[in-house]
Specification:
318 residues; three-stranded antiparallel β-sheet; 54% helix; 22% strand
Length: 318
């Protein structure tokens, strides 16, 4: 009886173990490559997968994108410069069955392929291109690695070169070149600034000259207009003046001349006629011939004869 119970317990434990081994839960980003009696029979998952623990064997494959760091590799450029480069490979499995059946250890295989591919790519480039054309080198590495890993069911998505270490001599030459380039840019920038300043100054002077000439022209026009208006005003007033007013103004002018500091005065010839005209205007008019009943005309006192030019000299003041 005890033996039966022991056998029953063993059978029950075996059944539970077999049931636990027969049930597999596969995540969304995983796949199972199923082998039955050593032969690949397909890919299972995701979800609940039932297998025969006696005849079936499984290999779990991760479909997520992963990365592989390639340590520093020494390569020689086309112009015989030795440099050290390290980079990163990003890849993902696109065919789980091929990734299991075609390559034993993808990480080790990819690392060795990446090292040889890097030397091949760098050998086709000169040092300046390796240092400056980083994107082109990344694209070339990705294409060549993808051609190799495609038969393994793996897709290389991205290759990024992290660091490029040229020789010490090349670093010193690059430092000197960078310093010279910065000096050249500084000189060019300063020259361009001086050129722009000179152009701006010349433009400002030209504008100032134009504005000055325009101002002088406007000022001359205004002065001419003012002078023309004054002359027109004088002409209008002069036309309205009679002879007596002109004679009195003439005498006032002579008075001002006489009070000046000059020692010589020039008297015009018409001074006598001017004085006679003024006296005639100031004296009372004689009665007309009609009023006196005479037929003839009555003549007044004879006018003084005009005086010719004369010079009147003042005695010198002691």
């Amino acid at each position: 009886m005890v033996i039966v119970e022991v056998l029953g317990g063993v059978v029950a434990a075996s059944l539970l173990t077999a049931l636990g081994l027969s049930v597999k839960i596969v995540r969304e980003y995983q796949r199972i490559v199923l082998f039955r009696l050593g032969r690949s029979v397909g890919i299972k998952g995701p979800g609940l997968v039932l297998i025969n623990p006696v005849t079936d064997r499984t290999s779990l494959v991760d479909l997520r994108e992963r990365f592989l760091e390639i340590p520093q590799q020494t390569a020689i450029t086309q112009d015989n410069a030795s440099i050290s480069i390290d980079f990163i490979i990003f890849y993902k499995v696109v065919d789980p069955a091929m990734s299991v059946l075609e390559v034993q250890n993808f990480a080790v295989a990819a690392q060795n392929v990446a090292a040889t591919t890097l030397r091949s790519v760098v050998g086709d480039m000169v040092l300046d291109d390796v240092l400056s054309k980083r994107e082109e080198m990344n694209a070339s590495l990705r294409i060549r690695l993808d051609d190799v890993t495609e038969r393994w069911g793996v897709k290389v998505t991205t290759v990024e070169v992290r660091e490029v270490n040229p020789p010490v001599g090349v670093l010193e030459a690059m430092t000197r070149q960078m310093s010279a380039e910065r000096t050249r840019r500084a000189v060019i920038t300063e020259a361009q600034g001086q050129k722009e300043a000179a152009i701006t100054l010349a433009e400002g002077n030209r504008q100032a000259a134009i504005l000055g000439a325009e101002g002088e022209r406007q000022s001359a026009i205004l002065r001419a207009e003012g002078l023309a208006a004054g002359l027109e005003r004088i002409s209008t007033v002069g036309r309205n003046l009679d002879a007596t007013t002109l004679r009195l103004q003439y005498l006032e002018t002579l008075k001002d001349v006489g009070t000046g500091p000059s020692t010589k005065i020039v008297v015009p010839m018409e001074l006598g006629g001017l004085v006679s005209g003024i006296l005639g205007q100031l004296s009372p008019q004689p009665p007309s011939a009609a009023e006196n009943g005479h037929a003839g005309l009555r003549s007044g006192p004879p006018s003084p004869a005009p005086v010719g030019p004369a010079e009147i000299e003042d005695s010198e003041k002691s």
